[in-house]
Every structure is written in C-alpha cells, then in structure tokens.
Design brief:
The chain has about 400 residues and is of the alpha+beta class. Helices cover about 60% and strands about 10% of the residues. Strand 6 (about 385-390) and strand 7 form a beta hairpin. GO terms for molecular function: kinase activity.
Length: about 400
C-alpha cells in the first residue's frame, strides 16, 4: 500500500487543506486542534506525574529536576509537529525517553501517531528501538518504588499496546478509503453500463426505424413514380396507387409515432404494449406487397407458425420485409419467391429470391445499411444470414435461425 494511494497518510495531508497563499503549509482543522490539544495535555499530565514521583524520591539533584522539567516540556511541545515529521519525532522521543522518564508519555503518543500515519517498515524500525529502550530506562533511571523487571515488562507492554492500536486504526482508515473507492468505482461502472444499454437500445430502435420505414417509404416512392411516368393511366389504377400511397404514409407515420413513443418512455421496451410482428403475420406482409403491385409467391412450410419463438418469428418477419423492400427498389416488376421452412429442433430457414429486372427502371437510392442490420439481427438471434447476387443477375437473401426443440 503506497502513500499515493492514500493521500491522507501523508504528513501534509492530515490537515485537510493548505492555507491560501502559503503552499505546502497545512491548515489545521478544528478537529486537529482538539486532538492535538488533548494529546498534549495527556502527555503533560503523564510527565508531571512522573516528575512528581522523581521529586518525592528526594535523592535527585536540583539540576536534574530542572533538566527533567525542561526536556519533558520540550517533548510535549514536539507533539505539535508530529503530523509533519512523525518518524523523526517518534525516534527522537524514543531516544530521549531512555534518559528522561518525563518524556515517556510524549514518546508513547508519538509512537501511536507513527503507527497511524506511516507504513509497517518505519514503524517496525522505530518500534524495535523503543522495545530495546524499555529495559534501558529503568537501568539508567531506576524507580525506587518499582523493580527493574516490572518496569521493563510495563515498558514493553505499553510500547506494544500503542503500536498495535495505531496499526489497527491505520488499517481501519485504509479499509474505509478502499470501500469508498470501490463504491465510486461501482457507481462509475453502473453509469457506464447504463450508458451502454441506452446506446444499444437506441441502435436497436434505429434499426427498427430503418426496417419499418424503408418498407413504407419504398411503397410511396414506387407508386409516386408510377403516377409520374404514367399520367395517362386509367382512373382505377390511379385511384389504387393513390390509396396505396395514402395507406403507406399513414402506416409510416403510425410506426414512427410508436417508435418515438418508445424513445420517450425509458421504462418501455420493444416488447411493450404495441403489437409486434411474428411469423404468423408474415402472410399479411406478403398480401400488402401484392396489393402494392408486386408478384410475390410464398412457400410457407412451417407446421405451427404460432409456436415459433417470438424473437425468431420477428426476425423472420423483418428479414422478409427488408428483402421485399430491396426487391421492390432494385428489381421492380420481377417476381419474388419467399420460402420459409423448419420446425422445433431443426431451426427456421427463410429465403427470398428474385431474378434480374426485366427492363429499365427508375432506381430508388439506398444506403446498403438494411442488409447489414439484417445480418446483425440474425447473429443476435443466434443464427446467420447470407446474401448476394446470383449469376443471372438476380439476388438471394437466405437466413438460418435457431428454434429450440
């Protein structure tokens, strides 16, 4: 665990902000002042208690008492800079406590702060020095009221206690930082997943708009072109073409309104309240194409169209719709053969085949995105789609889709 992963472990980061205009100088918070003052008073209290015990001995020279008082006060004041230099303060106070019992309280607090704010290696080094100093202090400055062994054991236990406590506090803070980072990362990942899902939904809706509207608008283009190039057509044919144009425009607007409704309703899906095409409605699509003037033959060799999976049936419908639209665009007047076969366990096969156009015609512009979208649909449904021109100039679209048994 590095310091850069946990910036609050750096000495200058323990006070949360730097003072404006004074870079590198940490600004203490109210909590920092309260904690530092409390620890200073605790160290001073321990030092005064030890100093009182030394005075009660009445064998200590006056000069030594004055030195003890001054060094003890300096040790307590050193705690105010322990945040900036925790290793230095802890090491100096550990060495000082060997000859100066009054600094013992400040030394323990410095060891605790070191264990909280620094990794294990410097804590282990300074802690080993403190453990080695535990028997040295009663040896150089013995306490008449306590034996050497007892003083040594108490010193060792106090050092181990404050170091262990400090490392527990450090581990808990690191755990909190880790959990917060994981929470932030989880929120970011959730936002990315939501954004990706939204993008995929929009792509699916865009493909749906292409598949649906291309069919309707091609009918409009074909019949409007027929009226343009045959102004002398019989009134019955003109009326029929106008009726197809009107119905196609109305259905295109209705389809567009339904798709936009899905866009406006984030909680809706493609499987909402609006009816979806299935394998059963394939006959209606063929009838619609025939009413538009196409010569379409349907070979429907599926025993139970209603039993086909909804997604598979919808994919078959969209493939047939796009293939009929392309045939109407690029081979007007040519007969189109649609073959659907299969069943549970063997899958579904749909093939749309048309020969080359018989004569010249007014081409309808296309982008080629429809066949790409159909290939993606087939792959997403677990199948495959092949398409391409025939040697005689015709065109074939063939798809194979799964149908579980």
């Amino acid at each position: 665990m590095t310091r850069t992963e946990y910036p609050w472990l750096l000495p200058s980061a323990l006070a949360s902000h730097e003072q404006p205009g004074r870079p590198g100088r940490p600004r203490r918070t109210v909590r920092d002042w309260v904690v530092d003052l409390t620890l200073f008073l605790c160290a001073a209290g321990v030092g005064m208690a030890v100093l009182a015990a030394i005075e009660a001995d009445r064998t200590t020279p006056e000069g030594v008492l004055i030195a003890d008082s001054l060094l003890g006060a300096a040790a307590c004041c050193a705690l105010w800079v322990r945040r900036r230099w925790p290793v230095t303060v802890a090491a100096v106070l550990t060495v000082l406590s060997v000859v100066e019992p009054v600094a013992s309280g400040a030394m323990l607090i410095a060891l605790f702060s070191l264990a909280v704010h620094r990794p294990f290696r410097p804590v282990a080094v300074v802690g080993a020095v403190a453990l080695a100093a535990a028997p040295a202090q009663p040896l150089l400055r013995p306490d008449p009221a306590t034996s050497f062994m007892a003083s040594t054991i108490i010193g060792v236990l106090l050092v181990l206690l404050v170091l262990s406590w400090g490392m527990v506090v450090r581990s808990r803070r690191q755990l909190v930082v880790t959990l917060r980072e994981r929470a932030r990362r989880a929120e970011a990942e959730a936002a990315l997943r939501a954004e990706q899902a939204q993008r995929l939904a929009r792509e699916a809706i865009a493909r749906e708009m292409h598949d649906v509207l291309a069919h309707r608008l091609t009918l409009l283009s074909v019949h409007a072109g027929a009226l343009e190039f045959r102004p002398d057509a019989p009134p019955a044919e003109v009326a029929r073409a106008a009726g197809v144009i009107r119905d196609s425009a109305h259905e295109a607007l209705q389809d567009l309104r339904e798709i936009i409704g899905v866009l406006r309703g984030p909680g809706d899906s493609d499987e909402g309240n609006r009816p979806q095409p299935t394998l059963v409605t394939l006959d209606a699509l063929i009838d619609e194409s025939r009413s538009a003037g196409m010569e379409v033959s349907l070979s429907h060799r599926v025993a139970d169209p209603a039993g086909a999976p909804a997604a598979t049936g919808r994919t078959v419908y969209r493939i047939a719709q796009e293939a009929l639209t392309n045939a109407r665009k690029h081979a007007p007047g040519a007969p189109v053969d649609v073959t659907v076969a299969g069943g549970p366990g063997e899958g579904l096969t749909i093939e749309v085949d048309n020969p080359a156009p018989a004569g010249p015609f007014e081409p309808v512009p296309g982008s080629g995105q429809g066949l790409i979208g159909l290939t993606e649909r087939a792959v997403l449904a677990g199948g495959s789609l092949d398409h391409g021109p025939r040697p005689d100039g015709g065109f074939t679209v063939k798809a194979r889709l799964p149908w579980p048994a």
